[in-house]
Amino acid sequence: MLRHIPNVLTILRMLLTVPLAWMLRNGRYDAALLLALVAGASDALDGYLAKRFNWQSWLGGVLDPIADKLMLMICYICLAMAGALPPWLAWLVVGRDLVIVAGAVAYHNLVGPLTASPTTISKATTCLQIGLVLATLLHLSRFAEWPDWINATLFAIVAVATVASGLDYVLRWSIKAWRETHTKNGAASP
């Protein structure tokens, strides 16, 4: 029974996207910042528990990245709609994730089972994307104020990392798919 705690935390984090979206759409940035921090803490806790007590599961391996991406997508879309983030940046972040998912589905259907783990650049990009959301919420909640050029710099850093990470995934998995199909075709020929 206890071994399901990480999955329960992940599902609860997914459910937090609803009140988070509502808070962002209604300009309740103080509460949204607090909720985003709670979601981040639950993500860290479920990961710690899963690894520490060997409570990892296939379901958790699938749900955890979905919960993370869902939270990020909601934040980027809502913050762009509120005018706090440029729409092009929200499209870039969401588009990268959609390309990765489409590529994973295509790989699975055309090549074979997919066992992927995030790359270093992907992890760094996700950290930068989360950092931008938290910095934006902090700025909007008026806990911290800084000049606009800092926001523009943060937008540029996240954009470059997002493009680099997306290209890394596309190139890495295209090469892997090419090798797999050529290995299968080479083994099948007489």
TrEMBL record:
Principal location: membrane
Topological category with respect to the lipid bilayer: Multi-pass membrane protein
Pathway annotation from the record: Phospholipid metabolism; phosphatidylglycerol biosynthesis; phosphatidylglycerol from CDP-diacylglycerol: step 1/2
Protein's UniProt keywords contain Transferase: yes
Enzyme Commission number(s) from the entry: 2.7.8.5
Presence of keyword Manganese: no
Protein keywords: Lipid biosynthesis, Lipid metabolism, Membrane, Phospholipid biosynthesis, Phospholipid metabolism, Transferase, Transmembrane, Transmembrane helix
Catalytic activities: a CDP-1,2-diacyl-sn-glycerol + sn-glycerol 3-phosphate = a 1,2-diacyl-sn-glycero-3-phospho-(1'-sn-glycero-3'-phosphate) + CMP + H(+)
TM segment ranges: 7-25, 31-49, 70-92, 98-117, 149-171
InterPro entries xrefs: CDP-alcohol_PTase-I, CDP-OH_P_trans, CDP-OH_PTrfase_TM_dom, Phosphatidylglycerol_P_synth
Compartment annotation: Membrane
Pfam families: CDP-OH_P_transf
Similarity field: Belongs to the CDP-alcohol phosphatidyltransferase class-I family.
Name of the featured protein: CDP-diacylglycerol--glycerol-3-phosphate 3-phosphatidyltransferase
High-level lineage: Bacteria, Pseudomonadati, Pseudomonadota, Gammaproteobacteria, Lysobacterales
